[in-house]
Amino acid sequence: MLIIAGLGNPESKYLKNRHNAGFMTLDGIASTHGFGPWREKFQAAISEGLVQTIAGPKKTLLMKPLTYYNNSGLAVRAAADFYRVGPEAVTVFHDELDLAPGKFRLKAGGGHGGNNGIRSIAAHIGPDFRRGRIGIGHPGDKNMVTNYVLSDFPKADAVWFDALTDAIARSFPLLAGGEFDAFQTRVTHLAPAPGTADE
Questions:
Q1: Given this model, what pLDDT does residue 193 score?
Q2: Which residues in the chain come in under a pLDDT of 70?
Q3: Rounded Cα gap, residues 37 and 66, in angstroms
Q4: Does the annotation place 148 within a ligand binding site?
Q5: DSSP strand E in 85-163: where?
Q6: Rounded to an integer, what distance in angstroms lies between the CA atom of residue 85 and that of residue 90?
Q7: What is the model's pTM?
Q8: S-S: 163 plus which of 111, 151, 179, 191, CB 3.0-4.6 Å?
Q9: Any binding-site annotation on 14?
Q10: CB 170 within 8 A of CB 32
């Protein structure tokens, strides 16, 4: 079982916040690949499906922790324990202050970079899971970060954000099949970050 977690906060007032980029990314994957209806389990909203990959169909669990962003590890640990999988079977999509808006990077392991959701997951299952980092940029002052991440994406950002989540969903079989470099490359090709189309 692959476990794909998206970080966010569960209340409707947070729905379109930058901090809910992970939740929105999972909605796109579920819709594109015909996953089952969302239901509650593991202190999360979950949706299950089969993803067709080069290595054959992969059973995949999408999960949006309902424990609030900073305690996401509680839900991820519950699912990982239930399916008896290690961190190598887990990928977490989340907003990333340290990447320019629209940039996307997939990485395995490493530190939490001050992201409390990633910190929580690492504390519960260890650091060796993959992170799908969705660049939202930095407001320029650490005192502004909380308001920034808990604010909705402005309309101008919807162009690149919608393109990026669509690219992640369309490319997802590569990730599910373990073709991690190919996944990163295809996402970046389908949805180059603003101002980087000629790179």
A1: 82
A2: 196-199
A3: 16
A4: no
A5: 90-96, 104-108, 130-135
A6: 8
A7: 0.91
A8: 191
A9: yes
A10: yes
pLDDT given for residue 29 in this prediction: 95
Furthest CA-CA distance within the chain: 47
Question: Hey, where are the domains in the chain?
Answer: 2-190
- Classified as helix, coil or strand, 152 is strand
* Catalytic positions: 19
Task: Output the pLDDT for position 11.
Answer: 83
Q: 2-190, what's its fold?
A: Rossmann fold (3.40.50)
Task: For residue 105, give the nearest of 50, 15, 32, 184 by alpha carbon.
Answer: 184
Q: CB burial class (10 A; 0-12, 13-18, 19+) of residue 50? A: middle
Beta pairing, strands 104-108 & 44-53: unpaired
The alpha-helical segments, DSSP class H, found in 33-154 are 72-83, 116-125, 145-149
Check the annotation: does 68 bind a ligand. yes
Q: What is the DSSP letter of 117?
A: H
